Amino acid sequence: MKHIISALVENKAGVLARVSGMFSARGFNINSLAVGETDDPTISRMTIVSEGNERTLEQIIKQLHRLIDVIKVQDITNQDYISRELALIKVNVTKQSRSEIIQIVDTFEGRIIDVGPQALTVEVAGEQNKIDAVMKLLSSFGLREIVRTGRIAISRKKEVTIKNKK
Amino acid sequence: MKKNGAKILIETLVKQGVDTIFGYPGGSVLPLFDEIYDNSRIKFILTRHEQAAAHAADGYARATGKTGVCISTSGPGATNLVTGIATANMDSVPIVAITGQVKTFLIGNDAFQEADVTGITRPITKHNYLVKNTTELSQVVKEAFHIASTGRPGPVVIDLPVDITVEQAEVKYTKEVNIRGYKPVYSGHIGQIKKAARAISRAERPIIYAGGGIIISGASKKLYELAVKTNIPVTTTLMGLGGFPETHKLSLGMLGMHGTAYANHAVMESDLIIAVGARFDDRVTGKLSEFAPQAKNIHIDIDPSAISKNVKVDIPIVGDAGNILDELNKLVKKCSINDWLKKVEAWKKRHPLSYGDKGKLKPQYVVEEIYNVTKGEAIIATEVGQNQMWAAQFYQYTKPRTFISSGGLGTMGFGFPAAIGAQIGKPDKVVFDIAGDGSFQMNIQELATAVNSKIPVKIAILNNSYLGMVRQWQELFYHKRYSHTYLEGNINFVKIAEAYGAKGIRVDKKDQVRPALEKAVKTNGPVVLDFIIEPEENVFPMVPAGKAINRMIGGMA
Predict the structure, then answer these.
(1) 3-class SS of residue B296
(2) Alpha-carbon dihedral of residues B543, B547, B552, B553, nearest 10 degrees?
(3) Is B34 exposed, middle or buried (0-12, 13-18, 19+ CB in 10 A)?
């Protein structure tokens, strides 16, 4: 099962390598990993999507905790959370297909952010299955390039804020 | 007042209580060595290889409980430390390794003697630092010692560019260490401790399984109290040797792959395992799915990630072993487990550790005689392989920090430099390195260190001209095809010892063993004892790889 792990880490050089190195050294999977600064510039938030059984997940959380630069770790999979992913999709376009593509993008509340003679670039944000659906639909026109951010997620619970970690 | 980084470093080390540094100089640490040159507070031990400096710092830490310190230059100096750092990491030994680094502006340029040391050591340290400016240096050193020595201890690397040691900065020594991502838990959850006490009172076939955590925590007296109060037998891991007196009637010695048959049988048939500061490592459990099938597990450990890593734990208690045992001892009383104790006693009688004493000199006999001559009071360091297992089996350890061995990583070449470190830390003790002829040659150059720094360690080589343990596996599982395990050459270790200025004694007969050992112990200086032993002697009992630990072979001689 896929799990979403949300971690607060020190915002300094080498921390990403410590985290990703721990995953590879211990044979854990990373499906996606997204990092960004929080409101406190000394702290970053990592959202890691990983796969494994309960015992593996327990170990992942514990091993993350062991890292000195990791301040707080939570598996938010079983909490009430909201997750998003952003994708930029460059899709082939012809005069005939243009309106159909625009229609699909509209339906999924995406945006056309760049237009070329033979390709359109589409921006879609949302839950992972929504992005998967858009990609599937657009793939029939021929996809040229896809860039996805990986998931980020936020818990609805109040205490998952930075102030509590200090 | 402004001071240069080198001075700040050394002054901070002194403030941390460091009295000894093991190391080797080089280009990137010239300013540091200039500072060490006339510092009267720090004793510097020049090893002849950086790897030995790391092992010596490790041996010093294991023998004293203090944090060991080693220094190397950048690049190859630092990479030579790597094996020693990994060894300390696997056995949770607090060391701080200071590595020189090329100048800050050269980092990443493939400069002369440059290596990405924080990158290389990341997976084998508890934490590491690349110091970026001189003002933060003192604080980094304090943090490094704090991290290395607290919680589950481990090695910390400080990578120090040479310009940082030259630049001047104002020093602030006052700031306390407060790392927001690092807060080890020391006291155990009282509800869990009560649960454990209840489980102990109900158990019919309980056993205590104690590991290196007992020694790190300084909890051996409390473990003794728990055992004696409840009457529960105790087996220890290799790392736990000395954590419970092996001369006591409740002691079952070591368990696992080369453990005693009675310890392994007792664990396998137990209904409650009380694991303290141990990690259910594969050398202990054998085939996991068949390990102690009827047992409930209580697991006391300071590292939460050790719990339920290999074996499912019923009652986990995270915290310091000493604190938790203190609380637990208040709640437990004598268990009525006479039938169980009788059964254990019967196993002890039926399957004692033994060896056939015919033919050539037997290594087990040599180890027994080392025990007799030193009255069990020596510090025993070991190399890795058969020598290590015989040293574990046939010397009876009664006190913590008297058995020093690379358990987790299994590093050949560890014992001799570790013995040097232990001897520096414990100058009044007799220190032996029980060695093999293979392992000893991996750091044999340290004879120069021992002689020149007047470190009177005794090296007892159990010389079978083989890489004995690998040969044993080849004999048992590879049809005696001894592929590259015969160490040809008939090396004259006595002459080697003498060439370095040490004493050398060769022994190949049983009746020469004791006089040679007595002479060695009386000699005020390093002695190499070359015991020519039965070349194809095996370590028994033995649990073959992938088998349950009660499926032992051998040892019934």
Answers:
(1) strand
(2) -80
(3) middle
Task: Give chain A's contact residues with B (Cβ, < 8 Å).
Answer: 9-10, 13-14, 17-18, 21-22, 25, 55, 58-59, 62-63, 65-72, 165-166
Q: Is the peptide bond before B541 cis (omega within 30 degrees of 0)?
A: yes
pLDDT at B489: 85
Which of B434, B259, B415 is CA-nearest to residue B363? B434
- Predicted TM-score (pTM) of this structure: 0.95
CB contact under 8 A, A68 and B308: no
Residue of B nearest to A71 (CA): B181
The answer for residues whose C-beta is within 8 angstroms of residue B457's C-beta and 6 or more apart is: B416, B419, B420, B423, B431, B432, B433, B450, B526
> How many residues are present in chain B?
557
Q: Find which of A68, A70, A165 to mutate to test the B interface (most B CBs within 10 Å of its CB).
A: A68
Taking CB atoms and an 8 Å limit, are B181 and A71 in contact across chains? yes
d(CA B517, CA A37): 65
**Is residue B180 over pLDDT 50?**
yes
pLDDT at A166 (0 to 100): 40
DSSP one-letter code for B477: H
| Low-confidence stretches of chain A (pLDDT beneath 50) | 160, 163-166
Question: Which H or E run contains B100?
Answer: strand B95-101
pLDDT tens digits, one per residue of B412-459: 999 999 999 999 999 999 999 999 999 999 999 999 999 999 999 999
CB neighbourhood size of B521 (10 A): 16
B526 in Cβ contact with B502 (< 8 Å) = yes
Query: Tell me: the pLDDT tens digits for B395-409?
Result: 999 999 999 999 999
Q: Which phi-psi region, left, alpha or beta, contains residue A15 (left: φ > 0; alpha: ψ -120 to 50)?
A: alpha
User: What whole-number distance in Å separates Cα of residue B422 and Cα of residue B403?
Assistant: 10
- Please give the DSSP secondary-structure letter assigned to residue B425: H
**Contacts of residue B330, Cβ cutoff 8 Å, sequence gap at least 6:** none
**Which of A10, A59, A67 comes nearest B309 by C-beta?**
A59
Judge whether residue B33 has pLDDT over 70. yes
User: How far is A14 from chain B, CA to nearest CA, in Å?
Assistant: 9
Q: How far apart are CA B30 and CA B412, in angstroms?
A: 31
Cβ neighbours of residue B498 closer than 8 Å, sequence gap 6 or more: B504
For residue A83, the cross-strand partners are A153
